[in-house]
Fold Uridine kinase.
Amino acid sequence: MARHQHDPDHLHPRPQLQSWISAPGSKNEVMVSHGRAPWYGPDGKNIEAYVVGIAGGSASGKTSVARAILSALNYIPTVLILSQDSFYNAHTDEEIELAFNNDLDLDHPDAIDSSLFAKCLMDLKQGKATEIPTYSFVHHQRMPEKKYIYGASVIIVEGIMALQSPELRDLYDLKVFVNCDSDLMLARRIKRDVQERGRDVDGILDQYLRFVKSSYDNFVQPSSRYADIIVPGSSNQLAIELLVTHVKRQLDTRSLRFRKMLAQMGDDEAEVQSSKGEEHSDKQVVLLEQTNQLLGLMTILRDRTTSRGDFIFYADRLSTIVVEKALTLIPCQPKTVKTPLGVDYKGTGGDDQLVGVSILRSGGPFSHGLRRVIRDIPIGGMLIQSDPKTGEPLLLKSDLPHSIKSTETSGEVKVLLLDSQMGTGAAAMMAIRVLLDHGVLESNIIFLTYLIAKQAIHSVLRAFPSIHIVTAAIDPGLDEMHIPYNRSTLVLGESAGEADFAVRLIDGDLTTGGLEGEREKVDDQREGVQSEKELGADRFKVPIKREMEELKFSRARERRGDDGAFGEKRAWVISPGMGHIGDRYYM
Ligand SMILES: Nc1ncnc2c1ncn2[C@@H]1O[C@H](COP(=O)(O)OP(=O)(O)O)[C@@H](O)[C@H]1O
Ligand SMILES: Nc1ccn([C@@H]2O[C@H](COP(=O)(O)O)[C@@H](O)[C@H]2O)c(=O)n1
């Protein structure tokens, strides 16, 4: 049974449908819901997205079937409809003129850029980010802008030639053909093309008689032999329900209980490692030298009686030390400058390809440290939080620096990935997976943290053996806890102190009221240091608020004296640890 199917669903508010391509009449749609659960296994390897290919004649009802499936899968975090319409070839001026005279054959398989279509689909299926072209039926032309897409769990492909190319067929998990009466298709097409594509009836009929009909007979209809399921083009609710049941069943077999699996695997592996005497010897982990000065700092940070002001001051101080250490892992470029005396000085320069990515919100303190060391470094954010019921990490949003989002530069970028602590390693793994999906090289990722649970080292390095981890401390314990919560005042993302930014963003009182004000005052005192807001909070604010408006921050309620625990929330906590670093720093 599907993970969320029986959730009475204020926990999973109804997803938003958005059309993501601005060209008129675009059929591409993406459905985004509360967050994306791990799309990879504990080995860090992506589990492929489920792909449904839908073919059928023009106006047979392909898009309508795709949309019906999409709405029926409303508990799946990201479902994408990818239309073949986006992949029409770019045309020359002569071809455009022919098209306006209904003299261009746009119904031949060669009219579609099938290899680009297959490449984009392959990227998405493998969990990678991709860029989709946009096409205008009004201008008969491919548009200059491309659309960045990342993170679909289910992809529904639709197009008249969707089952035509063997390259595309190989990528589908399920092949569907929409079978519709020709007269009905023509009637629908006339109506649609007049209303949506700026055509006149004479032209539509001309084009139909010249190209559309013969293409249907010669290419489209014969491709129905590849279909697993034939769906009628009208009165098709029952067929769609059967289709959806099948897809749901397939998806259920892929669902994971990720964090628990990691915690258990970490335990086993840590035992094996200790028995071999290999604890922490891995050269990928850089533990700061345990000087008296560092131990003194850690003592203050671990002490439950440390005031919030002191906690912030010493956390900031420690983050700069960790950042400085991490920078020693990045090769320097030689750089010659002129001194004020006009003499050459042969020194070194920073790496232009270096960026920071903060796992929000716990990475916030590190962003401050990083900005103190490299003032103008681009810093992106990823909003990852825990599902309160399962403890699984959920990716709510990623806002990455341009150099990571661009396929041209992502292979060169070096990323300092920032989070206050790593408990099970689940949030860290998710963040690393996002970076890899964008083409960042594993060996170019350095994870910076104050504190890491021993087990997390094994979990993360087992999956991603080439990353580096720089930490101030390694703790032995990781305990599963069951924390009571009141359903109407749910706390999210507190497991092991890993990213829990959303909770603050969804509570108007906290973001606009007293506590935020207090934080602002602290930030104001730091010259040249970005506030939490500047570091990404605002960018995440609107969508999170909209999608999760029913969720409230229970701690705030607790402080206000509300009670009524409703259920239990699962969390993994590092021991002896530093407590909930996000809360101690921000609240
Ligand atoms: N099952 C159906 N019953 C009634 N009208 C439908 C049905 N499916 C599609 N249509 C209508 O037919 C037109 C074309 O449908 P669409 O799904 O866009 O076709 P395609 O994607 O195959 O070109 C639309 O106006 C749509 O409302
Ligand atoms: N510039 C273009 C490109 C394509 N067409 C027609 O679109 C039909 C396919 O789209 P459906 O949404 O109907 O599947 C195809 O039959 C082409 O003739 C067009 O008119 N102009």
